[in-house]
Design brief:
The protein has about 350 residues and is an all-alpha fold. Helix content is about 75%, strand content about 0%. It is globular.
């Protein structure tokens, strides 16, 4: 019995490693096909293959990460994707684009792991960004014909709902929020509303001078910097992922903050669908938003540590002790969260 158990454990680890390697190769191959299609080196048929492969791999990853049935959901994604390609109808392609974007947005958040230090939080934000970029190319590969604003609101809304439902399961209910979590979720909701509806709010309630000043700033940024960062990415999505992954190493409320990370992954996932924006503009806007968001996330982390940690004259020593105590357990990136 004592010898059989280590052998079974070794076999499970080997099977897990082989499965992850296969999954990663599929994602890399799909990404290569999507990049080639985006640059015009291959025809739309290879782009369809890349989109189906990405959706299948992401369905597997999200199901495995959330304790579901990866084989069932990945096969379902493969069959449905193949049916969409075979039937080749605009309505089906648009629906597949919505599903791909939502799947990408939620998976990008769920694939993150806790970060003890700020550098680790930056790493997790970049991991979510990379997952979102591949999903963005897959969404574009479906060639959806949609009303742009309706498409964006649908993807963002469904992503938020799916993210919070998943986090609800992770926290085993609302009791995992705590008073700090409630305040954080309310604050995140306010920021979300302001960033989503800021243009309409400015038109209705902003003064003429304020609107003109903001318009001038946007035009200057486009002219001199090549793009203007999306407010929801810079003010909500990236700070939420940065601060949330950092908090997850210490308190379970960090997951509720990470749920707002779809403010990064969803806009990136549907960014390329906009025909009025070039790939360069989309890339620059995402990069500027990430940089601004990481700075805001750094400030939030420092404030959180100052308010929750006992800082004395020996600041560096206290920081090392605080990092050593941040050992809240959580499964690894390639394992189920529950």
């Amino acid at each position: 019995m004592s010898r059989a158990a280590p052998r079974r454990s070794l076999r499970r680890r080997a099977a897990h490693g082989l499965g992850f390697t296969t999954w990663l190769l599929v994602v890399l191959a799909a990404a290569a096909a999507l990049v080639a299609a985006l640059l015009g080196y291959v025809d739309d048929r290879l782009a369809d293959v890349g989109a189906v492969a990405t959706g299948t791999a992401y369905a597997w990853g999200l199901a495995a990460r959330t304790g579901g049935r990866p084989v069932v959901f990945s096969l379902l994604a493969l069959v449905l994707g193949g049916a969409v390609v075979a039937l080749d109808q605009n309505a089906l392609r648009s629906g597949a684009a919505v599903v791909t974007a939502v799947l990408t947005a939620v998976f990008a958040v769920m694939v993150t792991v806790p970060a003890v230090r700020y550098v680790g939080a930056v790493r997790e934000t970049l991991v979510a960004l990379m997952v979102s970029v591949v999903g963005s190319m897959a969404t574009l590969a479906w060639s959806p014909e949609v009303d742009l604003h309706r498409f964006e609101y649908t993807v963002l809304g469904l992503s938020l709902v799916a993210s919070f439902v998943t986090v609800y399961r992770l926290g085993a209910g609302f009791h995992g929020l705590g008073s700090r979590g409630v305040v954080t979720v309310l604050a995140g909701s306010v920021v979300l509303a302001l960033t989503v509806w800021y243009a309409e709010l400015l038109q209705r309630y902003g003064t003429h001078d304020l609107v003109a000043t903001i318009d001038d700033a946007v035009r200057w940024s486009h002219h001199h910097l090549g793009a203007f960062p999306r407010p929801i990415v810079a003010l909500l999505g990236v700070p939420a992922l940065t601060w949330g992954t950092h908090m997850r190493a210490r308190r379970r409320q960090g997951w509720w903050i990470c749920a707002f990370g779809v403010g990064l992954s969803a806009p990136v996932a549907y960014a390329l669908v906009d025909p009025g924006r070039s790939v360069q503009e989309v890339s620059l806007a995402a990069a500027y938003g990430v940089v601004i968001g990481l700075l805001i996330g750094f400030v939030l982390i420092r404030l959180d540590l100052r308010l929750t940690s006992a800082r004395g004259r020996r600041g560096r020593r206290q920081a090392r002790l605080e990092e050593a105590a941040a050992v809240r357990p959580e499964p690894g990136r390639t394992h189920a969260l529950w």
